[in-house]
Design goal:
The structure holds two protein chains of two kinds. By secondary structure, chain A is mostly helical. Helix content of chain A is about 80%, strand content about 0%. Chain A is built from eleven helices and two strands, in the order αααββαααααααα. Chain B has ten helices and 14 strands. In chain B, the strands form three sheets. Chain B has a six-stranded mixed beta sheet with strand order 6-7-8-3-9-10, sandwiched between helices. In chain B, α3 crosses α4. The longest helix of chain B is centred in the last third of the chain and has 17 residues. Chain B is globular. Classes of the chains: A mainly alpha, B alpha/beta.
Chain lengths: ~260, ~300
């Protein structure tokens, strides 16, 4: 007797991928959860407490407070991206992705499972970094809905981007190239440590091409009530990126690019 | 109903290699079917297409009348695959591997755990079920692949060389398990390099070579085609020369071993009489090779000659 393919069976399949991902993240917590918290703590100590005192104010806020949203976003972005690339590429490299490919699960469930796992790790790290930040600069929350929604959307967008990277990756080097040469520069130049409005002339226009600027500013608005960019533009751009990346991921999975011969 | 139906299936890889040249094949529900062929013949490509790991270039594949190409999810729910290579996460526990696989097929977690325990026990894997999979022996890993493939209780079980590198004791226990599964109604398709395995277990057979089916019939019918048999005779005393015998080819392998090749229609009594007349005492006798192996080699060689 075989199993019925139904919405319920898909739901069980999705839960299975998610549970497997969460178990993996928690099993290797010393690799997945602790390092970003330590790195961000160092950022708070060096840029916030030591250098921040000399900087004074940024965007009308004490520098320490100003960098908190950006640093939380930085950890969310890198962990969402890093989790899905290492997990999915690892499954591809070890061939156990075939367990999913021969199953009745449709591509969108496989994608949803892996993205949810990456979002779980990104948000867990984000919350831990937030707690560290609260120790240095106190707890702030200007708009709960904006804070949570933009955090979720950003984690989803970078999980999807990481998934594409994992699909095309042929060797382990390939999953570190994009984070090192693209993601990190974009994040550092995305208004984490400075207000985009401080940039002179044309560089301000160039900075606005960077999607991370919009996410960091929307999150800063959610936490502190200040932003260089109108909120609706930040949402439109984040949702736009998310939709495009989702369609690309789904198309790649359906065609079996990098997965099926 | 047909468990598997393949029509004009073609596969050309991106590097230009033509793996399948438009094959037709069908396997009846409940059958124990052998798919044989030399390395690179197209067996794994065919299995890959049936299990949706490989995209077909042309043609259609149906599993219990469900198109793999058009209704992939429904078709995959009917199949359990034991791949040639170990492809589970070596850093997970066997129990988790089997339970998770059940989850991908929509089996609720409670039921999945019960079934995982049943199949792991049935395949003598319960003791290491909670150890890291990479610590399992080669034979245990192979059995774990079978437990994983069976946990959603598929109607069609495809085994791609399941006993490769497995010692004879475990191989026999695996044969017993797979035979029981087949007896319970599951259709089994087996590829193997151990031809006695196919001969002992399977009812029907297809031989694939150079991307084409060169034979597709029942094992019984196929073995009926074998008209010459070779026997190995062990002699009590060493000899230096062989007697002449019409219609029988005698070869002296060593001073106490003779190989006798003769048509099946010939009586063995005549051979023994002649040997006795020449003062030779036969102390034991056996078939030189597995019968299916002889046919297999003959069919594949024929195909190669045709291609040349």
């Amino acid at each position: 007797m075989s199993v019925e393919v139904s919405a319920r069976s898909y739901w069980i399949g999705y839960q299975t991928i998610l549970i497997k991902e969460i178990t993996r993240i928690l099993r290797i917590w010393a690799q997945t959860l602790i390092p970003p918290v330590i790195t961000m703590s160092l950022y708070f100590v060096i840029f916030g407490a030591i250098i921040g005192r000399r900087v004074g104010e940024m965007g009308g806020l004490p520098y320490m407070e100003f960098i908190v949203p950006g640093l939380i976003m930085l950890s969310v972005i890198t962990n969402a991206y890093g989790n899905i690339t290492s997990s999915f590429f690892g499954a591809k490299f070890g061939k156990h992705v075939e367990e999913l490919l021969v199953s009745p699960l449709p591509p969108w469930i496989i994608l949803a499972g892996y993205v949810s796992g990456a979002v779980f790790r990104a948000l867990t790290v984000g919350v831990l970094v937030w707690l560290v930040a609260a120790f240095f600069s106190g707890f702030h929350m200007y708009n709960v809905a904006v804070t949570i929604s933009i955090l979720f959307l950003t984690a989803i967008v970078f999980s999807l981007a990481g998934f594409i990277n994992a699909i095309y990756a042929q060797k382990f080097d390939d999953i570190s190239i994009i984070p090192t040469f693209v993601l990190q520069p974009l994040t550092y130049l995305g208004g984490v440590f400075f207000s985009v409005s401080l940039l002179p002339g044309i560089t301000q226009q160039i900075a606005l091409v960077n999607p991370i600027v919009y996410m960091v500013n929307a999150f800063r608005y959610g936490l502190l009530g200040v932003s260089d960019i109108p909120l609706w533009i930040a949402y439109a751009i984040t949702l736009g990126f998310g939709t495009v990346l989702f369609v690309i991921c789904l198309t790649l999975l359906k065609r079996g690019i990098g997965l099926r011969s | 109903m047909k468990a598997l139906e393949v029509n004009q299936l073609k596969k050309t890889y991106r590097n230009g290699v033509v793996a399948l040249k438009g094959i037709d094949l069908s396997v009846e529900e409940g059958d124990f079917f052998a798919l044989l062929g030399p390395n690179g013949a197209g067996k794994s490509t065919l299995i890959g297409i049936v299990s949706s790991l490989v995209n077909a270039s042309a043609g259609e594949t149906k599993v219990f009348d469900i198109s793999v190409q058009k209704q992939r999810s429904r078709a995959m729910a009917e199949i359990g695959l034991v791949p040639q290579e170990v492809n589970f996460n070596q850093f997970e526990k066997p129990f988790d591997i089997v339970v998770n696989q059940a989850g991908y097929y929509g089996v609720p977690r409670g039921v999945a755990k019960e079934r995982a325990e049943y199949y792991l026990k049935k395949l003598s894997l319960w003791e290491p079920a909670f150890r890291m999979a990479r610590t399992l022996s080669g034979g245990m890993k192979r059995r774990l692949l079978i437990a994983r493939a069976m946990v959603h209780q598929p109607r069609l079980l495809i085994l791609d060389e399941p006993t490769a590198g497995v010692d004879i004791e475990i191989r026999r226990s695996m044969w017993k398990f797979i035979s029981e599964i087949n007896a319970a109604g599951t259709t089994v398709i087996l590829t193997t390099h151990y031809l006695e395995e196919a001969e002992n277990l399977c009812r029907n057979i297809a031989i694939i070579d150079h991307g084409e089916i060169v034979e597709n019939t029942s094992i019984k019918h196929l073995l009926g085609k074998l008209d010459i048999e070779t026997f190995v005779l062990d002699l009590r005393e060493p000899i230096t020369s062989l007697p002449e015998l019409d219609g029988v080819e005698l070869v002296l392998r060593d001073p106490t071993t003779i190989e006798a090749s003769m048509p099946k229609s010939r009586s063995l009594n005549r051979l023994f009489r002649v040997l006795e007349e020449h003062g030779m005492e036969v102390c034991s006798m056996r078939n030189k090779a597995n019968r299916l192996e002889e046919l297999f080699v003959r069919l594949v060689n024929l195909d190669q000659e045709d291609a040349a």
